[in-house]
Write a structure and sequence with these properties.
Largest sheet: 6 strands, mixed
Number of helices: 10
Helix content: 25-40%
Distance between the termini: 39 Å
Strand order of the largest sheet: 6-13-11-9-7-8
Strand content: 15-25%
Length: 268
């Protein structure tokens, strides 16, 4: 049985990925990188370990010790943890970070990819095991977007792609084709709530892949937490980039959106 390392951040996606990999015959070694990883991951994986994202030396040592040649990196690990002191980087990570030209998301992730490959571990396409979670173009709720919402969806995707091109974030909150908020280090949910407050209700949230998206990491994802943030922000619509955005817990998320009059669409 081939071993697969699963480097897991927070959210439900790592557990879903572990189940899919085991169904394909992999022995899944899940490494929970943060203390608040999904508790379901422990049962979903074949082997479960907890190693802090800051302890890159220990992560690499474990993969080598277990003879794991392939990994998938999935789940949310926000960069702000480095700046708030919530993560204590080991000597190896501190040294690697000091050599970077900047600390943009892709720069840090490519650093991590390089460290894995240096010890003979290949990072896989994040979506290889869970491609069915990426909706194709279409309306995902019973209520279709109004003309005004559709215009904001198109504009929002344009803005989200542009900040993605700059490697800043993947989410834009707009209203009447004006930008209310753009995602940066605070993450998607905080961006939605901030943008919704500034919009005073009725905002449209857009989530898109970066034009230069590397499918090995940071693939855009939405889920139940996203819809909960839309509800709190009194937003009216969500648009995701079709065939490029993971939709987790889709059934429950759509049900919550429907109950709050929120329309969801996937667009090219």
């Amino acid at each position: 049985m081939e071993k697969l390392g699963l480097l897991a951040g927070v959210g439900h996606l790592p557990a879903a990925c572990a189940r899919a990999a085991r169904a394909l015959g992999y022995e899944v070694h899940a490494i929970a990188l943060l203390p608040d990883c999904d508790p379901e991951l422990k049962d979903a994986a074949s082997v479960y370990r907890e190693i802090s994202i800051g302890s890159i030396g220990a992560i690499l040592a474990y993969l080598q010790q277990e003879g794991i040649g392939k990994v998938t990196m999935i789940g949310k690990v926000t960069k702000e943890l480095l700046f708030t002191g919530a993560i204590q980087p080991d000597e190896m990570l501190r040294s690697m970070l000091m050599q970077l030209p900047n600390q943009n998301d892709d720069t840090i992730m490519m650093m991590f990819v390089g460290a894995l490959m240096k010890v003979g571990v290949t990072p896989l396409d994040q979506t290889a095991l869970i491609k069915p979670l990426m909706p194709s173009a279409g309306v995902l709720t019973s209520r279709a977007p109004s003309d005004a919402e559709r215009a904001d969806m198109e504009y929002g995707l344009q803005m989200a792609r542009e900040i993605g091109r700059l490697d800043v974030g993947q989410t834009a909150v707009v209203k009447n084709r004006a930008v209310m908020a753009l995602e940066a280090i605070e993450g998607t949910d905080a961006c939605i709530r901030r943008g919704g407050q500034l919009a005073g209700g009725g905002a449209v949230v857009a989530k898109a892949a970066k034009p230069q998206q590397d499918s090995r990491f940071d693939v855009p994802a939405v889920g139940l937490d996203t819809i909960e943030s839309l509800v709190a922000a009194k937003a009216s619509a969500l648009v995701i980039e079709a065939d490029k955005t993971l939709f987790i817990d889709r059934e429950r998320a759509v049900a919550l959106a429907e109950a709050n009059g929120i329309t969801i669409a996937a667009m090219q």
